[in-house]
Amino acid sequence: MILEQYHAPYDVLATVDLGSNSFRLQVSRVVDDQLYPLDVLKETVRLGGGLTEDKLLEQDTIDCALACMARFGERLRGFEAHQVRVVGTNTLRVAKNAATFISEAERLLGFPIEIIAGREEARLIYLGAAHSLPATRERRLVVDIGGGSTEFIIGSQYKAHVTESLPLGCVTYSLRHFPGGKIGKAAFRDAELAAASEIQRITHAYPPGEWQLAVGTSGTARSLRDILEINDWTSGEITLGGMLRLREELLRFGSFKAIDLNGLKPDRAPVICGGLAVMIAVFQTLHIERMIVTDGALRDGVLYDLLGRQREKDMRDSTIAQFKRRYHVDTAQVERVLRLAEQFYGMVAPDGPLLKCLNWAAKVHEIGLSIAHTAYHKHSAYILQYADMPGFSRREQSELATIVLGHRGDMGKMTREIADPELWHAVLALRLAALFCRSRNDVDGRAVRNVQQTMNGYALTIDGDWLEANPLTTSAFGQEVNQWRRVGMLLELRPA
Questions:
Q1: DSSP string of 263-274?
Q2: Which residues contact 373 (CB under 8 A, 6 or more apart)?
Q3: Are 108 and 73 in contact (CB under 8 A)?
Q4: CA neighbor of 22 nearest in space, from 270, 306, 292
Q5: Three-class SS state of 465
Q6: In sequence order, which ranges of 211-297 are alpha helices (DSSP H)?
């Protein structure tokens, strides 16, 4: 079996967090499995503020964000691909023209951008928060109010047990409920009621008896803590009483431009009302009395997750293993297919970037059998595309689903599924492996002498005696030639 070569752990890692309010770049040094910040860059881009009602990013916002990407790209020069991880959150999840921005942003940064799902964002936030808290055993409720979404996590030590993401953000709520920057009682009431209505949907999963400590992370929580402490309304934590006092002060100012509060940074003034309204609703709906605040957040979680991948503690491997158990995968068949798929891929793409993805695909390509045998590959692909898969970005899930979708059935559908040419190599490898292992018996992979790419497709060199001894598989190869012809490729069978 071909195994992916893990890179030796790096001394320095970097992450970029493309949030709906701020873009942040953090460079950290690795010492004994701990991360120590070396450099932090932050720019208040307010990507969420540039999202129109029809979910399109405005050009001025895109230009501002790309200028930031160019500056971050300069700081990241000289870093290798395995040292850097870039994640996008809520606004890039919902913007209809996000793909155009991402393409140019990746060029300026020099690294791929992963759009992570809401629950994956929650998991990473908890991981970052947990590494900045004492290693105690109590169950924690972690709340992260971002620019466009709010994440809720119940976890203990370094493991998140319950994760959820709701479309509540300090940027979106400030724009929606305080138009023109005007602050009024009705605006606060409407914002708090709207937030409470959203949070009500998840209260059953976050009852007070399920956690002992409430923790806030990120900009809104830190701003609220600082304001309440500096103005002597609390002693270093967030309380409902302190926030109600802050709300009265903000009403006295009447507008964002007039706000003059000790402890409030100027760049937070335009979003403090929306963030406060959401936090009040969180406290009231989830029955929180007080909340401590930690500095660890999404970017820290991303870095620790990246460090785990280099230490061969990849959360994605754990997710694939869990899916195999959940869907009762035939382990023996998986190992047969996996062995051959990796062998074929190593022949056609010796240094191909999708070996790890192919490995995962082979392990879960039959999970759709738990739904129905007919068109099970479509069921498998659908699950992989849309399920919550901790550790995976949306792009990775899409690649995984595409490889699995293509491993059997009509190839005509694949022309619209595959944009990256590298995916064809992985599809070929898994498709051939599944074909060879159709009988669900062990197969001698030495019968395949070579698999190579040609000008018009692929060529398979197979032992002639083996072909004669296996007429059913030989016939299946003939049908396979026709399938590849449907996508404009020539699949040649060359007896050796």
A1: T--GGGGGGHHH
A2: none
A3: yes
A4: 270
A5: helix
A6: 218-230, 240-253, 272-286
Structure tokens at 192: 């708090």
The closest of 241, 243, 245, 266 to 256, measured between CA atoms, is 266
3-state secondary structure of 377: helix
Q: Are 21 and 219 in contact (CB under 8 A)?
A: yes
Please name the residues in contact with 78: beta carbons below 8 A apart, sequence gap of 6 or more.
Answer: none
pTM of the model: 0.81
Q: Do residues 39 and 32 make contact, with C-beta atoms less than 8 angstroms apart?
A: no
pLDDT of residue 7: 46
Q: Please list the ranges in the chain whose pLDDT falls under 70.
A: 1-9
Helix axes 394-405, 355-364, angle to 10 degrees: 60
Q: Residue written as tokens 């109600």?
A: 244
Looking at 113-193, which runs of residues are DSSP E strands? Answer: 113-115, 139-145, 150-156, 159-166
Separation between Cα atoms, residue 268 and residue 44, nearest integer Å = 9
CA 384 to chain centre: 13
Pairing of strands 457-462, 448-453: antiparallel
Strands of 490-495's sheet in order across: 448-453, 457-462, 490-495
Output the six-digit token pair for 114: 């992963």
Q: Quote the tokens at residue 421.
A: 């040419």
Q: Which residues of 300-317 are buried (b: 16+ CB within 10 A; e: fewer)?
A: bbbbbbbbbbbeeebbbb
Q: Who contacts 180 (Cβ-Cβ below 8 Å, separation ≥6)?
A: none
DSSP 310: H
Q: What is the Cα–Cα distance from 20 to 121, expressed in whole angstroms?
A: 13
- Give the number of other Cβ atoms within 10 Å of residue 201's Cβ: 10
Q: At what angle do helices 240-253 and 272-286 cross, to 10 degrees?
A: 150
Give the tokens for residue 417.
């599924």
